[in-house]
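Structure tokens please, single chain.
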Amino acid sequence: MQSKEKNIILILSVVFAIVVLVIGFLYLRQNNQYKGVVSELTIDKENLATEFQELMFEYDSLKPQSDSLLVLLDQEQQKVLQLLEELETVKATNAAKIREYKKELTTMRGVLRHYVVQIDSLNQLNKALTEENKAYKAQYREVTQKVDVLVKEKEDLKETVERAAQLEATDIVIETLSARNKRTKRLNKITRFSIDFNLTKNITAPVGEKPIYVRITGPNDEVYFEDESNVFLYENKKINYSCMRIVEYEGEALAVTIYWDVNRYLFAGDYRFDIFADQHHIGYQTISITD
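Here you go.
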């Protein structure tokens, strides 16, 4: 009996030892598997954090030209930042949370692709509008240049016509007369100037009554005139005249004589006689008077 009991105890000891070994083996294997799973989840979490950071950089690299689109991108970027901060607080062993963040990442990548397409479309549209604007500007410059040329040609033509229509005083002769209307060279005897000239033939000039003005300048560059109100228009300014006469011009050559009665003391020296008609300077002559 004792021998039999010993055998039973021995057998039970062996079985117990075997069970302990099996349990130990299973524990070690399960522990290794657990560590492997934790390691994989940790790697997943790190990779997920890296992808969220890359997503942040991708949002940051986008350069929309629309202010409203820029606001939306900033909001999405803030969401990514918030998820990244939340991910840092999640344990690597929380597989369910890790899966949720992976889904969020997939969704946000889809949103990013949508914005990329939208921004690209806007950029293409802006590029097309820019090119169209350049074309319009080029056309505008071309039209403006043509208009400038036409305006210049019109001004040149107008100037040519005006020059063609401008009268000309030729054969200008200045005589100094005495009180008896006799020619005299003596300074103290001169009482009148006679200004004789010819208006040339010009079929393009305006016809009809035409005032002719004479402006006399003395040796001291003083303009001789009787009254401040004796003015005419020349180069858009009113200037004084010494004497004037209205003639009837019909486009043919016309001899004209205008007199100026001396109403002041004359000095020896050079006198200039400028003749004007139709607001143009049409001729001049100078004479020298000695004592």
